[in-house]
Amino acid sequence: MAVQGIVVENVSRVFGGLKAVDGVSLTLARGETVAIVGPNGAGKSTLVQLISGVDRADSGSIHVDGVRTDRLSSDRIARLGVGRSFQTSRVFPALTVWDSVLVGVQPGLIERPSGRLIDPVTESLGALLGLGFWRRRVKAQEAAAEAALKLFGDRLWPRRDQPALSLSYANRRRLEIARLLAAEPRYLLLDEPSAGMNPTETEELTHLILDLRRTHPQTGILVIEHKLSMVRRIADRVVVLNQGRVLIEDKPDHALDHPEVVEAYLGKPRTGASFQDAHHG
Amino acid sequence: MELFLSQILNGLAIGQVYALIALGFSLVFGVANIINFAQGALFMLGAFIAYSAIAWFELPLVAAAAVSVVIVAILGLLLERIALRPLIGAPYIAPFLSTLAISTIIDQSAEIIWSPESQPFPAALSNTTFFIGNAYITLTDLVIFAFGAAATVALTLFISFTWTGRALRATAQDSAAAAQLGIRTEAMRQIAFGLAGALGALSGILVALYFQSVFPQMGIPFGLKGFAAALLGGLASIPGAVVGGLLLGIGETLASAYVGDSYRDAIAFTLLLLMLLVKPNGLLGSKRLDALGGAGAAAGAMPTTSLLASSSSQQTAIRAVYLPAWGFLVVGIAFATVPLVLTSTYVLQALIYGFIFALLAVSTSLVSGSVGILSIGHAAFFGVGAYAVGILARPYGLSADATLLVAIALTALVAVVAAIPLLRLTGHTAALGTLAIGQIGFLVFLNWVSVTRGPMGILNIPHPVLEILGGARFATTAQKYWLVLGFVVIGLVIAERYVSSPIGRVWRAIREDRLAAQASGLPVKRYILLAFAISGALAGLAGGLFAYVQQVVSPESFTVETSILVLTMAVLGGLGNFTGAAVSGFALAILPEFLRGFAEWRMIIYGLLLLAALRVRPQGLLGAR
Ligand SMILES: Nc1ncnc2c1ncn2[C@@H]1O[C@H](COP(=O)(O)OP(=O)(O)O)[C@@H](O)[C@H]1O
Ligand SMILES: [Mg+2]
After folding, report:
1. Where does the pLDDT of residue B121 fall: very low under 50, low under 70, confident under 90, or very high at 90 and above?
2. Which residues of A touch B308 (CB under 8 A)?
3. Three-state SS across B402-418?
4. Keyword set for this entry (chain A) (predicted)?
5. What is the mean pLDDT of chain A?
6. CB neighbourhood size of B120 (10 A)
7. Which of A226, B180, B414, B490 is most buried, with most CB under 10 Å away?
8. What is the pLDDT of residues B136-162, one digit of tens each?
9. CB contact under 8 A, B520 and A163
10. pLDDT level of residue B534 (50, 70, 90 thresholds)
């Protein structure tokens, strides 16, 4: 039985002398929600780039459910069940909302249960001739896409025929998350999902994640988040990164009130009232 | 060994010329962040203006060169003013296509002014040969090298030590910051284009001296080599351009000495493709290439790799209008009745070409529009299909079912292989890669005499016979009309089915944001290769039908002009919109049939159409999809 979860061991990434990620180790088990916090430039996004295979680590290893992934391409890693969002949402601007979400389920359409991909000829025949087996697969994927869009109430579903470029900033974030969820990932990596959202929208997102935790108890969620009030509500554990290193890893209340963390965030020891949200970038 | 050293000296001379062309690319790329496709046309004009000054006005070489350099520098300024300035804020692809249109217009005008033939360029220098040890170098080579090197040094000094030069560099590094410092960045853009024109003219004259001839079609191959040199050096660096030019010159000269002179260009372009394959950012590496077209907006507020996006991240929201797959069937049936009421062979023949080009334009639109890899090389795929039929039909007595099937399969295979070097590229670089593919194709058709019969071409292709229709023979024009229409409709229906299927959706997602598509779990390269296979199959079918209709296959049908023409059709119809591509392919192909007597104006008209469309409606007639 292979080790379940995402296991990051001693991973580093250097950009021309700058150690963006410096010997980081962490784990994300299924069903668990871990928040990564830290000041701007701490290496949080880079870590997500490395786990998702969009960028390559210089050293260290990453395993997903026992499979070593640090040399795999990002599409392979995604098909292992790792879905990620981008700090600046990436939504296929000219595609409609509906098409964008369907792109998310496409890998499931062409993947056999064994994990191998259906060959292009079979895929072409299925798509062109509308064969029965293919249509059933398409129907199932479309149902997943519809369900994912409807998770966001009337934010996205009524806009499904609009191009993504016409969406508001917050809706683009929602669309990106919907695209990930449609693929029913085992692990979800979210890079600042609430950035650019107002308090009401942030509250909505918090509820969405809490709901997800209930409806998908087997999904591991790694979320990079600056809004610490939200972190306190959704996370089981918090990993604080600073200058590419793990500063502390603990339960949210312990980690976030730790003097070193407060200092890393605010540049001086905490005095007086406990701070709520750190606003960086 | 002597031969080897002499070849190296010879290569240094021509390499110095490539370096000059490369510098023209680098300057413009550095300052304006676009690849100026018309650099080759400026180069060609430089050579021809000097030629005319000598041949018509009997100026001495130096005076003729000076006149030419000044005139072409002014043309460079005009190019920026007319073709590019109005497009600021337009989709990423617009400036590139605009310089492509201008280049077509200049090339064709040159053919009208100076005739399409090559002209002898007066040998201004004696045939003196110098020996260095046992290696030799001619006086001409020496002069070319000296002039090229002097121009490079002068440019470097200008860039490094004058105020204008520093302002140019500042603009190249950070246009916005330069503007803040009070530098007039628009003026800098103009200066860059003016300098590029001057460099182009100078290099054109040196090449004319080197080969002692000038011809109106010289712009594209030399422009492409200059681009290859610039790319080799990392595109935005002056020393890089020089090193790249010299390396290319030496490599090409050695290769042509040891492999054969007729393969000189094919080798240069193959080197370019290999470069793109292993080091797409150039030997010296330049991250800025990533920012070209493609990933230009990837760092913006709304990341995308789409060429149809613009720096303001806004795509003009024009709803695409297009037929469903069965719509093509209905239109096809309507067209099938035409020979029943119209018997004019002339009209039917024109319509047949219209159908073939409709299919070819759709094939181009598939990779250029749906996948977003702009193709300026589709004539090569068209040619592979045509030659497959030409070669197989008579000697082997094969039926049309068999020959067309081979044409389709072979072209699909060729397209897939050709696409491999393009897999990691986006934007303008990918487009120039396809141009190299197109050039290689043409050179193979022209030079692989034992298979293609070279410039002679393959004659007397028999009338097609279809075994699946019980050996039916298609001999009359009306019969061929039905045959072509039938196959074209099948091709169009399949293409439309593809692009409206989940596969087509993936293609568009790859165009919109390749990184996100891959991070979503899609095997991006596989889907790109599939697109090239389908596109190649369609182009191969078009080529095969073309061979049966013409009954002759020869290289001049598959020049870069044809590639530019079909790309223009695809853009005018709306990239990725197959209905649009089919309509404009059909219309533009039959248009010249009704403009007899204006044959030589054809490409100019297309160029102007493209320029106008880019300004008025960059999303194409029926809207990009
Ligand atoms: N592709 C890159 N090239 C060079 N430096 C980078 C690159 N990506 C990130 N960095 C640098 O690495 C550091 C960490 O960046 P990032 O992971 O984005 O931080 P965070 O997400 O915690 O704000 C920063 O100093 C950033 O400038
Ligand atoms: Mg970040």
Report:
1. confident
2. 94
3. HHHHHHHHHHHHHHHHH
4. ATP-binding, Nucleotide-binding, Transport
5. 89
6. 11
7. B414
8. 778 888 888 888 889 889 988 888 888
9. no
10. very high
Contact B337, B482 (CB under 8 A): no
SS3 of residue B285 by DSSP: coil
Its CATH class, for the domain covering B2-103+133-288, is mainly alpha
The answer to whether the CB of A45 is under 6 A from ligand 1 is: yes
End-to-end Cα distance, chain A: 43
Residue B553 has pLDDT above 50, yes or no: yes
Name the DSSP letter for residue B422.
G
Residue pairs between chains A and B whose CB atoms are closer than 8 Å? 118
> Is ligand 1 within 6 A of the CB of residue A12?
no
Percent of all residues in chain B with a pLDDT value above 90, rounded to a whole number = 47
CB A62 within 8 A of CB A51: yes
pLDDT above 70 coverage of chain B, percent: 93
Instruction: Output the six-digit token pair for B164.
Output: 């204008």
Q: Is the pLDDT of residue A252 over 70?
A: yes
Which residues share a beta bridge with A269? Answer: none
- In sequence order, the 6+-apart residues with CB closer than 8 A to the CB of B173 are none
Query: Do A223 and A236 form a contact (C-beta atoms < 8 A)?
Result: no
What is the overall mean pLDDT for chain B? 87
CA distance A104 to A279: 31
**pLDDT above 90: residue A268:** no
Q: Is the CB of A169 under 6 A from ligand 1?
A: no
CA separation, residue B327 to residues B55, B220, B320, B331, B496 (Å)? 58, 39, 15, 6, 10
Domain spans, chain A: 1-81+185-281, 92-168
CA distances from B115 to B90, B111, B120, B214, B446 (A): 36, 5, 13, 11, 21
Residues B77, B86: Cα–Cα separation, whole Å: 14
pLDDT at A269 over 50: no
> In which band, very low, low, confident or very high, does the pLDDT at B335 lie, cut at 50, 70 and 90?
very high
Say if residue B427 is exposed, middle or buried (CB neighbours under 10 Å; 0-12, 13-18, 19+): buried
**B290: phi > 0 → left, psi -120 to 50 → alpha, else beta; which?**
alpha
Nearest to A103 among B308, B317, B505 (CB): B505
CA atoms within 13 A on the CB side of B61: 12
Does B42 have pLDDT greater than 90? yes
Q: Can you tell me the distance from the alpha carbon of B432 to that of B422, in angstroms, rounded to the nearest whole number? A: 10
CA distance B378 to B360: 8
Domain boundaries, chain B: 2-103+133-288, 325-560
- What spacing in Å lies between the alpha carbon of B102 and ligand 1's midpoint? 42
**pLDDT band with cut points at 50, 70 and 90 for residue B302:** low
B28 vs B86: CA distance, rounded Å? 17
Tell me which H or E stretch contains A191: strand A187-191
Which of B500, B514, B518, B520 is the best mutation test for A, with the most CBs of A within 10 A? B520
Strands A18-28 and A33-37 turn out to be: unpaired
Identify the CA nearest to B539 among candidates B421, B415, B371: B415
Q: What is the ipTM of this complex?
A: 0.92
Task: Dump pLDDT digits (tens) for B384-427.
Answer: 999 999 999 988 889 999 999 999 999 999 999 999 988 887 77
Cross-strand bridge partners of residue B614:
none
Structure-token pair, residue B150: 């002097």
Please state the CATH superfamily assignment of the domain spanning residues A1-81+185-281 in this structure. Answer: P-loop containing nucleotide triphosphate hydrolases (3.40.50.300)
If one counts every other C-beta atom within 10 angstroms of the C-beta of residue B165, the result is: 17
The span from the CA of B60 to the CA of A185, in Å, is 75
| Residue reference for tokens 């105020």 | B163
**Ligand 1 neighbour A73 (Cβ under 6 A):** no
Average pLDDT over residues B186-193: 88
In the predicted structure, residue B545 carries a pLDDT above the cut 60: yes
